Amino acid sequence: MATRVLIAIGQRLYREALRDAIAQRLGVEIVAESADGRETLAQVKESSPDLVILQPGLKELNGAETIRQIHIDNPDLPVIAVSSHSDYPLVMRVLKAGARAFILTDGGLDELQRAVEASMEGRIYLSPGLEATIA
Questions:
Q1: Judging by beta carbons within 10 Å of its beta carbon (0-12, 13-18, 19+), is residue 22 exposed, middle or buried?
Q2: Which of 17, 66, 88, 125 is close enough to 101 for a disulfide, judged by CB 3.0 to 4.6 Å?
Q3: Could you give the CA distance from residue 71 to residue 78 in angstroms, rounded to a whole number?
Q4: Is the pTM of this model over 0.90?
Q5: Contact predicate 63/55, CB 8 Å
């Protein structure tokens, strides 16, 4: 059975392109999409995904707070943060909120696939470019 994924990306074009790419390439089932943090929380309740892929810069409720609130009712639901920003405070906020993975957008679909696999196995995954940021 395919992994059920909710995609929470603010920009519609980016969200739709990511949806189509990962559904085909990663073989996951996209069960919901959202454009902001509050909508993401509602979609988690409504669609019961196995995994959430979100952008930390969501409107209405930022990514870190969205992750915190997701984990109140769904503490084991893996969340992958996808961002073009790699600054230390952002990465740490998102990881402390409970994200299992933080990947940079320049990593491509291969990196997203590694993050999905690690997250579903309960492991933490960081883009290789983030190691220096964290250290």
A1: buried
A2: 125
A3: 9
A4: yes
A5: yes
**From CA 44, how far away is CA 59, in angstroms rounded?**
17
**Contact of 6 with 50, CB cutoff 8 Å:** no
CB atoms within 10 A of CB 32: 19
* Rounded Cα gap, residues 115 and 19, in angstroms: 16
Cβ within 8 Å of residue 75, ≥6 positions away: 98
Write the single-letter amino acid at 89.
P
One digit per residue, the tens of pLDDT, for the chain of length 135 reads 789 999 999 999 999 999 999 988 888 999 999 999 999 999 999 999 999 999 998 999 998 999 999 999 999 999 999 999 888 999 999 999 999 999 999 988 999 999 999 999 999 999 998 877 776
Residue 1 corresponds to which tokens in the numbers above? 């059975």
Report DSSP letters for 12-26, one per residue. Answer: HHHHHHHHHHHHHHT
Q: Tell me, rounded to whole angstroms, the distance of Cα 70 from its chain centroid.
A: 12
**Distance between start and end Cα atoms, the chain:** 38
